[in-house]
Amino acid sequence: MEHKIIRLELSDYEKCGNIWDMQRQSDLAAQLYQRLLSGNQTTFVYTIDNAFIGEVSLVRQMDDPDYTIPDRRICLSRLIVRESHRRQGIGRRLVAYAAETAKQQGFCELSVGVDLDNYAAVRLYVQAGFDRILFAGEDAYGRYLKLLKTL
Ligand SMILES: CC(C)(COP(=O)(O)OP(=O)(O)OC[C@H]1O[C@@H](n2cnc3c(N)ncnc32)[C@H](O)[C@@H]1OP(=O)(O)O)[C@@H](O)C(=O)NCCC(=O)NCCS
Q1: Does residue 24 sit in helix, strand or coil?
Q2: Closest ligand 1 atom, residue 88 Cα
Q3: Domain residue ranges of the chain, discontinuous segments joined by +
Q4: What is the pLDDT of residues 78-136, one digit of tens each?
Q5: What pLDDT sits at residue 142?
Q6: Closest Cα to atom 15 of ligand 1
Q7: Ligand 1 contacts CB of residue 8 (under 6 A)
Q8: What does pLDDT average to over the chain?
Q9: Predicted local distance difference test score (pLDDT) of residue 58
Q10: 10 Å Cβ neighbour count for 77?
Q11: pLDDT of residue 51
Q12: Is the dihedral angle over the CA atoms 31, 62, 139, 130 positive or is it negative?
């Protein structure tokens, strides 16, 4: 089986429906399309024999200055692995790939926001080197952390 990480082209964005339910989460699907269109986001897709299995994005400019600082800090966003393929190291590989790409693009910090009750994701990020807590707080969705990794 051929495993690859590729950059998502706008024309292929509907294929992410193999990873998550784009019809039920139509607001997120629209957001993905708009962010890709604007060039503010780059999305990487994990493929197995060309099937879309996982996804992660880098966002250059966010409204919250904790998350992005021009030419210095970029934000990791929307990490997700198809449910049937979790616990196989795909999430970890996607984060490592995004971090390496951000570094090659000249960024020296990578931020991420994560819900405190998302144990799997918190654990993954800590293992991946997100060792600074920028902020711990609460929003409408619950308690969350903003984490930082030095690249
Ligand atoms: C979080 C998510 C992306 C992890 O992807 P994955 O491919 O299953 O993760 P990996 O197999 O690469 O696991 C890497 C590490 O993450 C942690 N982890 C992943 N899933 C876990 C789980 N169910 N329970 C505990 N730890 C978990 C572990 O530390 C794991 O390392 P280990 O296998 O050596 O113990 C996946 O569970 C997912 O898509 N969740 C829904 C979307 C989401 O919550 N995204 C994060 C938004 S911030």
Answers
A1: coil
A2: 11
A3: 3-150
A4: 999 999 999 999 999 999 999 999 999 999 999 999 999 999 999 999 999 999 999 99
A5: 95
A6: 124
A7: no
A8: 97
A9: 98
A10: 20
A11: 98
A12: positive
Amino acid (one-letter) located at 89: G
Determine the Cα–Cα distance for residues 65 and 73; give it in Å rounded to an integer.
9
Q: From atom 20 of ligand 1, which residue's Cα is the shortest distance away?
A: 120
Q: Which CATH class is domain 3-150?
A: alpha beta
Q: How far is the CA of 80 from the centre of ligand 1 (A)?
A: 9
Q: Is 88 in the pocket of ligand 1 (CB under 6 A)?
A: yes
pLDDT in tens, 68-78: 999 999 999 99
CB 89 near ligand 1, within 6 Å: yes
Paired strand residues for 133 = 147
> How far apart are the C-alpha atoms of 85 and 61, rounded to whole Å?
30
C-alpha span between 56 and 15 (Å, rounded): 14
Q: Is 92 in the pocket of ligand 1 (CB under 6 A)?
A: yes
> Who contacts 17 (Cβ-Cβ below 8 Å, separation ≥6)?
23
